[in-house]
Amino acid sequence: MLLKERSKLILATRNPHKVIEIKSILSNFNIDIVTLNDYPDVPEVVEDGATIEENALKKAKEVHRATGITSLADDTGLEVDHLNGQPGVFSSRFAGDSATYAMNNAKLLTLMNNVPWERRTACFRCVIAIAGEGLEYLMEGRCNGYILNETRGDHGFGYDPLFYVPEYAQTFSQMPASLKNQISHRGKALQKLKCFFENIA
Ligand code: IMP
């Protein structure tokens, strides 16, 4: 009997938090998932796009070109209404080029100091791009919430401890990973690609 060869997908990221989340969300599919950590020679992709869509597609295409494997890239931005959509595409370097998560969170807290609750609304927007042979997909997922005036919780990464989801009365950092993956921007974008994964798995 011929066994169907498992499809392979490379995650165009070296971010361990993203890798864990994406692998967990895609765990029901029969796909071999590798990451850029398995391909150390692939150069870092410069994220110089004007939008998260451009960055996601650029990462997916460059990693597919370098490895020949169908590639999945995630680009995410936190869009804060009071800050006219900032940090948005600059989310990872909000407090400077080599900013840590703590530095970005501190800058956000400073800018949101004394802003009343009803004006603390924000949205996490994630764009997932897939690039392969004759293949290009873009899918977006959003999650709405509020920016707290202090960090809460120990899980997750990035802006998670400041991002409060009113429906669950907790931040992304307080909730179990399984709940975040179900309701998050990243989880929703990946669920929209379910058909794609069902076809390749
Ligand atoms: P990237 O450009 O997609 O890697 O993400 C930009 C920045 O957004 C990251 O450095 C994190 O600070 C933040 N970020 C991305 N995804 C999440 C998330 O799921 N929760 C909290 N912060 C995130």
Written overview of the protein:
It is a single chain. The protein has helices at residues 16-25, 52-67, 101-111, 177-183, 185-192, 194-200, and strands spanning 7-11, 31-35, 71-80, 121-132, 135-147, 163-165, 170-171. By secondary structure, it is of the alpha/beta class. The chain has a single domain, classed as Maf protein (Alpha-Beta Complex), CATH 3.90.950. Strands 2-1-3-4-5-6-7 form a 7-stranded mixed β-sheet. α1 links the parallel β1 and β2. α1 (16-25) crosses α4 and α4 (177-183) crosses α5 (185-192). The radius of gyration is 17 Å and the shape is globular. The chain starts with 6 loop residues before the first strand and ends with a helix. The mean pLDDT is 94. It binds inosinic acid. Residues 15, 74-76, 91-92, 101, 104, 156-160, 172, 184, 186 line the site of inosinic acid (IMP).
Blueprint (SSEs and pairs):
Elements: E1 7-11, H1 16-25, E2 31-35, H2 52-67, E3 71-80, H3 101-111, E4 121-132, E5 135-147, E6 163-165, E7 170-171, H4 177-183, H5 185-192, H6 194-200
Parallel strand pairs: 1-2, 1-3
Antiparallel strand pairs: 3-4, 4-5, 5-6, 6-7
Inosinic acid binds at residues 15, 74-76, 91-92, 101, 104, 156-160, 172, 184, 186.
